[in-house]
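Give me structure tokens for this 105-residue protein.
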Amino acid sequence: MGDEKLLKEIGGRINTCRKQMGMTQEILAEQMEVSVQMISNLELGKKAIRPENLVKLCDVLNVSADYVLRGLRTERETAGFMKKYTRLSVENQQLLEKLAENLIR
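Here you go.
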């Protein structure tokens, strides 16, 4: 995978996580103690994230570095989904499983 494509994918995951947390770029930048321009560049895939900023980002967004860098969720991150899944009816669990199978194909 090319560096440019990888940076765009990382940026997309950062953007998604930030929005899921209900944060603006400004709020994220403030909490990480970095510039808004840096956040913008990261999300657009224009710049790579430095290790010290990756640690801050993960802390602020409550996400793993594995997810940010590779798109892989940890067991801790999927636990919330599993709690929701177990509260579904058997019929809805089966529907969700079929949907997942179709998405994987």
